[in-house]
């Protein structure tokens, strides 16, 4: 289904898509300072959705997280570039935390936008050195810990699930820990967030494992050689090599392995909930919660889905826009998670073969997560009863719907015009086809405003 087909089949996503487009345009407006402009421009190039949520954070936290992200992207670029020799790469990873104090540092590595990032890394360094000392210390420490961890895995295969957890800790769990420390240092979150390393780690692992699962085909096809992080302890139960899973003849076993990988990722969900329940600043909350919702949504789509071994599997853009628009408090997070857990539960009940090795564990993981989150949602709703719609809001939305209906009535010629408008009938005859198309769009928008908003209340 093409983009137009997706939009027509989900008209309630039209307005969220439009508003997300406007948010992306705002995020693309760069600061006047040339160094900051480079950093935010690069952020837009490498992660447009991340750029939108980061732009909503207050400063100085916003600039600190932008720089933090780019520093770690630089470190990740060194790790990912398979053209670099190991004897060069390992020491560079271990001393990268020192490079972020060197205004003249550049490196010829990476691809596309990342190549430009590394060629102009001194600009990132300049902004880093303007950050508050507390923020600099967090970024440097996490970069050091991550660089040493990445170096340990350069020539080490991910064999056990423990190896898998440790690798994900180095490349993503530490990001969660660093972000929590930045939140606390900014004063927007409590000092306790800085020491909540276990929960912060689970937040990172859940996101990283989702990416590793989703990107199977892209990673296995990487040149000059793939780097894969699916643990042998899991995939070895289903095939002789990881590359075998992309072959159609091995699809059944590949999907069983995929289901096992997703089941492993689900064990982090309760800890992610605990973390988000501690956040108090709405923009920090959105910054953390939106990627988590996207992760559970992606896992729900990927579960038992053989298309993952053929191409890109991801959430609809309109669905993503709706998540961005309707993630403002814990009630929203609970509702989104329950929605995608319902998708997983339906697949477990009706699509997965009874002999799937991880099925019992998956069923238990989904059931326990639903029970936990369902209880939390009920408690949250009891403590936060919905406010009734104001009379003005109701009047506004219904007036818009009535006007849209009246316009459609007129341009489609469904009856005689009121006598007072009869002299102006020629206006409706100009570009009649275009006006009819516009009337349909207006009806859809007005209907979503009246019905969709009330349903989501």
UniProtKB/TrEMBL annotation:
The keyword Membrane applies. Its EC number is 2.5.1.21. It comes from the Eukaryota. The keyword Magnesium applies. GO terms for biological process: farnesyl diphosphate metabolic process; sterol biosynthetic process. The chain crosses the membrane at residues 283-306, 398-417, 437-453. It catalyses: 2 (2E,6E)-farnesyl diphosphate + NADH + H(+) = squalene + 2 diphosphate + NAD(+); 2 (2E,6E)-farnesyl diphosphate + NADPH + H(+) = squalene + 2 diphosphate + NADP(+). Its cofactor is Mg(2+). Belongs to the phytoene/squalene synthase family. This is Squalene synthase. It comes from Gonium pectorale (Green alga). The lineage of its organism: Eukaryota, Viridiplantae, Chlorophyta, core chlorophytes, Chlorophyceae.
């Amino acid at each position: 289904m093409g983009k137009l087909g997706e939009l027509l089949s989900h008209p309630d996503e039209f307005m969220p898509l439009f508003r997300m487009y406007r948010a992306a345009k705002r995020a693309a407006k760069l600061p006047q300072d040339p160094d900051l402009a480079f950093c935010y421009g690069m952020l837009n190039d490498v992660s447009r959705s991340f750029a939108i949520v980061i732009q909503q954070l207050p400063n100085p936290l916003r600039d600190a997280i932008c720089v933090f992200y780019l520093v770690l992207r630089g470190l990740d670029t060194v790790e990912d570039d398979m053209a670099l020799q190991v004897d060069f790469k390992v020491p560079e990873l271990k001393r990268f935390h020192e490079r972020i104090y060197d205004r003249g540092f550049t490196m010829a590595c990476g691809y596309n936008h990342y190549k430009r990032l590394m060629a102009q890394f001194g600009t990132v360094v300049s902004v880093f050195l303007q950050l508050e000392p507390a923020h600099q210390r967090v970024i440097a420490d996490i970069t050091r810990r991550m660089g040493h961890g990445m170096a340990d895995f350069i020539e080490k295969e991910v064999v056990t699930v423990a190896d898998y957890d440790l690798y994900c800790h180095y490349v993503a769990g530490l990001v969660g820990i660093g972000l929590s420390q930045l939140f606390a240092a900014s004063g927007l979150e409590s000092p306790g967030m800085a020491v909540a390393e276990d929960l912060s780690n689970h937040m990172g692992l859940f996101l990283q494992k989702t990416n590793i699962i989703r990107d199977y085909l892209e990673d296995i096809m990487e040149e000059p050689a793939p780097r894969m992080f699916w643990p042998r302890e899991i995939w070895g139960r289903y095939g002789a090599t990881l590359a075998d899973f992309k072959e159609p003849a091995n699809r059944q076993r590949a999907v069983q392995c995929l289901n096992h990988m997703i089941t492993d990722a689900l064990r982090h969900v309760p800890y992610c909930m605990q973390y988000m329940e501690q956040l108090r600043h709405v923009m920090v909350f959105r910054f953390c919660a939106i990627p988590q919702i996207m992760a559970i949504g992606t896992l729900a789509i990927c579960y038992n889905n053989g298309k993952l071994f053929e191409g890109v599997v991801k959430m609809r853009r309109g669905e993503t826009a709706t998540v961005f628009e309707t993630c403002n408090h814990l009630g929203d997070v609970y509702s989104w998670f329950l929605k995608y857990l319902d998708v997983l539960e339906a697949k477990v009940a009706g699509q997965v073969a009874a002999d799937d090795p991880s099925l019992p564990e998956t069923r238990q993981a989904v059931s326990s997560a639903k029970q936990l989150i369902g209880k939390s949602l009920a408690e949250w709703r009891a403590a936060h009863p919905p406010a009734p719609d104001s009379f003005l809001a109701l009047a506004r939305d219904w007036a818009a719907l009535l006007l849209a209906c009246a316009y459609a009535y007129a341009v489609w010629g469904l009856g005689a015009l009121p006598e007072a408008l009869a002299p102006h009938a020629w206006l409706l005859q100009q570009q009649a086809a275009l006006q009819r198309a516009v009337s349909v769009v207006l009806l859809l928008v007005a209907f979503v405003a009246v019905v969709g908003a009330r349903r989501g209340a």
